[in-house]
Design brief:
By secondary structure, the chain is α+β, with helices and mostly antiparallel strands. The protein contains 10 helices and 9 strands. Strands 1, 2, 3, 4, 5, 6, 7, 8 and 9 form a 9-stranded antiparallel sheet that branches. It starts with 10 loop residues before the first helix and ends with a helix.
């Protein structure tokens, strides 16, 4: 087997990711695929266009929310634990490059003409666009690879809530990748390449494109509007509020028992695809729309207040107003970090838009965050007349990749950790 200048197997020897030669070559070599640290074919980007990949926590949670989303849930196809661990290492190495604006492996061109290139190429010439890649593990993953005794209690199965109409094809998943960026092509490129690296070991179960962020983690930023035209999530946790993040988002070493120790520094993600009955909403009077949310539509101020960030007087709102029911003061202080996006996926065949909110929420424990909050909302929220939850998933998001030797999921899969 020939070697490249870095001492690892050459690209001609391995014949690229995803090909038949890879599976045989990698198995024979007893290791995974080496990733080039080069930047073949990609222009350098300004430093402020790249979000640091390494850290105590994964990027893409408290990070300032980007404009675009490509979210993918995967099913695991391999039964080999070592092969799956190697995939996580290969994914980590690929993500480290892509978030820096570099191509995967040896790039999209210039290699062996008879083999598929290592990178699909659609991000050539684009900046990193603040790309973040965030990985999570679903409950079903813990039924594999001898992980049953490592499933943390905070990764609770979601109950069926009143009004749920979940599509099995858009629900669940063994693991997920959340790609956020300011350029949609950069986000799609990232998911596409990770799926390619994982070919034969994982397969995309479902995915969702998102635009128009509906939440902000930046204190001074304008609060985005959802497809109903309203500002929501005014009191969302900011990425600079370290005390609130520690209290409500990051898993602590004091949480749970030994089963959840590997999650220290991580978080739990709930993803919900919420379809909006746009046509019905658009025929609803302005007064009723404002009563449903408990805010005015123009400024976003709570009922009876002048400015968006004025402290709400909850009793001035209707009892079933969304803001009143979702506010921490109405829920024993329950607080979650939201990173939702709008979506539009064509029509439903009856002339109605298939559009709504792809809801993403991070919390320290699903049992003490989303579940009790959603039980209250699904039972009483006036907004339920205009929305329906049609997809759902929950994931344990492990801590961040600390350095160039670390990898996604190391604390779960490595006995040394």
């Amino acid at each position: 087997m020939t070697e490249n200048k870095r001492g690892g197997p050459s690209r001609r020897a391995l014949i690229g990711w995803g090909g038949a030669g890879l599976a045989l070559g990698a198995a024979a070599a007893g290791g995974g695929v080496a990733l080039s640290e080069g930047s073949l074919g990609l222009a350098s980007a300004a430093p402020d266009h790249a979000v640091p990949f390494h850290g105590t926590h994964q990027a893409g949670i408290a990070t300032p929310v980007q404009d675009r989303l490509h979210f993918a849930a995967f099913d695991v196809k391999t039964e080999d634990r070592a092969e799956f661990v190697q995939l996580l290492k290969d994914w980590t190495a690929a993500a480290r490059l892509m978030t820096a604006g570099k191509p995967v492996g040896e790039g999209a061109y210039g290699g062996l003409a008879e083999a598929p290139p290592d990178d699909t190429g659609e991000a050539l010439g684009l900046s990193p666009s603040r790309l973040t890649l965030t990985v999570g593990f679903g409950p079903s993953l813990f039924e594999r690879f001898g992980l049953a005794d490592r499933r943390p209690a905070g990764l609770a199965d979601l109950p069926k809530f009143p009004g749920d109409n979940l599509d099995a094809a858009r629900t669940g998943g063994d693991l997920c990748v959340q790609a956020c960026a300011d350029d949609p092509q950069v986000a799609v490129h990232a998911i596409r390449n990770l799926a390619r690296v994982g070919f034969g070991k994982v397969a995309v179960r479902w995915s969702q494109l998102g635009f128009g962020k509906t939440s902000s983690t930046t204190p001074d930023a304008q609060t985005p509007r959802n497809l109903m035209g309203f500002k929501d999530g005014t009191r969302n946790i900011a990425g600079t509020e370290t005390a609130r993040l520690d209290q409500h988002v990051w898993v602590s070493a004091s949480d749970g028992d030994a089963k959840s120790a590997w999650m220290t520094g991580g978080s739990y993600l709930v993803a919900r695809r919420i379809r909006m009955n746009i046509e019905t909403w658009d025929r609803t009077s302005l007064q009723e729309q404002e009563d449903v949310f408990g805010r005015d539509k123009g400024e976003g101020a709570p009922v009876g207040k002048a400015k968006e960030h004025d402290a709400p007087f909850l009793k001035a709102m209707k009892p079933d107003a969304h803001v009143r029911l979702a506010h921490p003061d109405s829920n024993d202080g329950i607080t979650i970090l939201r990173r939702g996006y709008s979506f539009t996926d064509g029509t439903d065949g009856l002339g109605r838009l298939d559009a709504g909110l792809f809801f993403l929420a991070y919390q320290r424990d699903v049992r003490e965050g989303f579940i009790p909050l959603q039980r209250r909302l699904s039972a009483h929220d006036a907004l339920n007349e205009y929305i329906q939850h049609v997809g759902s998933a929950v994931f344990a998001v492990p801590p961040g990749v600390r350095d160039s030797h670390d990898w996604w999921g190391r604390t779960l899969f490595s006995k040394e950790a």
